[in-house]
Automatic annotation (TrEMBL):
<dbReference type="GO" id="GO:0004641">
    <property type="term" value="F:phosphoribosylformylglycinamidine cyclo-ligase activity"/>
</dbReference>
<dbReference type="GO" id="GO:0046084">
    <property type="term" value="P:adenine biosynthetic process"/>
</dbReference>
<comment type="pathway">
    <text>Purine metabolism; IMP biosynthesis via de novo pathway; 5-amino-1-(5-phospho-D-ribosyl)imidazole from N(2)-formyl-N(1)-(5-phospho-D-ribosyl)glycinamide: step 2/2.</text>
</comment>
<keyword id="KW-0067">ATP-binding</keyword>
<dbReference type="Pfam" id="PF00586">
    <property type="entry name" value="AIRS"/>
</dbReference>
<protein>
    <recommendedName>
        <fullName>Phosphoribosylformylglycinamidine cyclo-ligase</fullName>
        <ecNumber>6.3.3.1</ecNumber>
    </recommendedName>
</protein>
<dbReference type="GO" id="GO:0006189">
    <property type="term" value="P:'de novo' IMP biosynthetic process"/>
</dbReference>
<dbReference type="InterPro" id="IPR004733">
    <property type="entry name" value="PurM_cligase"/>
</dbReference>
<dbReference type="Pfam" id="PF02769">
    <property type="entry name" value="AIRS_C"/>
</dbReference>
<keyword id="KW-0963">Cytoplasm</keyword>
<keyword id="KW-0658">Purine biosynthesis</keyword>
<comment type="similarity">
    <text>Belongs to the AIR synthase family.</text>
</comment>
<dbReference type="GO" id="GO:0005829">
    <property type="term" value="C:cytosol"/>
</dbReference>
<dbReference type="InterPro" id="IPR016188">
    <property type="entry name" value="PurM-like_N"/>
</dbReference>
<feature type="domain" description="PurM-like N-terminal">
    <location>
        <begin position="49"/>
        <end position="164"/>
    </location>
</feature>
<dbReference type="GO" id="GO:0004637">
    <property type="term" value="F:phosphoribosylamine-glycine ligase activity"/>
</dbReference>
<dbReference type="GO" id="GO:0005524">
    <property type="term" value="F:ATP binding"/>
</dbReference>
Length: 367
């Protein structure tokens, strides 16, 4: 008589999952303030929303995202904590665009095999990102998928909820002709466009350990640079800048397409490509793959991770506040009436289902 089929024999190790939870508990707990009730391991995370009673009309903002194929770099380098900061940034920095303060976040990890230390590294990175963002990590799930994913494969996703007073909501409705467009620097590639970047790396014959003089480090170190988290800075700017109209998180689609999403119909924002020095990684990718510049800028952030649209009288103060927080900022251009230019490589109108305003790109990048 043969032994029966067991869950462990089918490839799912629940004990390994329990060990991973034990290894990550302390890091997760560090993100909890007095508003978080209970501890790690409950069926649902609890957050005391009593503070929302002070809002006249609280609006809940939600977002969910992942980190795309950047995960391949983390797996290849066997470095798993920084990907957590990427995940937090991609989620919470979408929420702050409307002026909302992120409150709570949850994560989901799917893997071929639970390696407790690796899962704990990922979650510790998420917890560090949550601390940086001022958000509580109140729950998560790790799912083992043997036979569907290879043992060393994994992917991550996250979701968050924030709150904003209805009267303080930022967005296209507040943007006016004459407003100033301010760029806030990215930390590098962030977490978009990695399918293009990985194709360039392969085409160039580089490995992740290849040192590139222009970068001052290896390809892998550059590609794994964590995404900048803007949330606490943006929340502070929203509270202290009367003339702040909108933020735009520069993710998939590039600078112009994402800026167009927060402009109303009838208005256009100018972007001067010569307004900043292009970080080396973008010119390296372009040169190594002979990537057309228009394709590059419609895929990557080109050194701008967040954009603020602000009244002209408040632009200097916003730039100074951003710089004081360690995020270089500068004027990109201004908002004006849409001249009705035809859509083309230098004119982007609306994006991602939003029938909004236009962005006009001019000049050349300083490389």
């Amino acid at each position: 008589m043969t032994d029966g089929i067991t869950y462990a024999g089918s490839g799912v190790d629940t004990e390994a999952g329990d060990k991973a939870v034990e290894l990550m508990k302390a890091a997760v707990a560090k993100t909890h303030g007095p508003e978080v009730l209970g501890g790690v391991g409950a069926f649902a995370g609890l957050f005391d929303a009593s503070a929302l009673k002070s809002y006249e009309r609280p609006l809940l903002a939600s977002s969910t995202d992942g980190v795309g194929t950047k995960i391949v770099i983390a797996r290849s380098m066997d470095i798993h904590d920084t990907i957590g900061q990427d995940l937090v940034a991609m989620v919470v920095d979408d929420i702050v665009v409307c002026g909302a303060k992120p409150l709570v976040m949850t994560d989901y990890i799917a893997c071929g095999k639970v390696v407790p230390e690796r899962i704990a590294d990922i979650v510790r990175g998420i917890a560090v990102g949550c601390e940086m963002a001022g958000v509580a990590l109140v729950g998560g799930e790790t799912a083992e998928h043997p036979g569907v994913m290879e043992p060393d494969d994994y992917d991550v996703a996250g979701a968050a909820i924030g709150v904003v007073e209805a009267s303080a909501l930022l967005g296209p409705e507040k943007v006016r002709s004459g407003d100033v467009v301010v760029a806030m620097a990215s930390s590098g590639l962030h977490s978009n466009g990695y399918s293009l970047v990985r194709s360039v790396v392969k085409h160039a014959g580089w490995s992740l350990s290849t040192s590139v003089p222009e970068l001052g480090r290896t390809v892998g170190e550059e590609l794994l640079e964590p995404t900048r988290i803007y949330s606490q800075l943006c929340v502070s700017l929203a509270a202290s800048t009367p003339g702040l109209r909108a933020f735009s998180h520069v993710t998939g689609g590039g600078l112009a397409a994402n800026l167009a999403r927060v402009l109303p119909q009838g208005l256009a924002a100018s972007v001067d490509r010569g307004a900043w020095d292009l970080p080396a990684v973008f010119s390296v990718v372009q040169a190594a793959g002979k990537v057309p510049w228009h394709d590059l800028e419609s895929t990557l952030n080109m050194g701008v991770g967040m954009v603020a649209v602000v009244a002209p009288e408040d632009a200097d103060a916003l730039i100074a506040a951003s710089a004081a927080a360690g995020v270089p900022a500068w004027v990109l251009g201004a908002v004006s009436e849409d001249a009705g230019l035809p859509v083309g490589p230098d004119v982007v109108r609306g994006a991602k289902g939003v029938d909004g305003g236009s962005v006009v790109l001019s000049g050349a990048y300083k490389v």
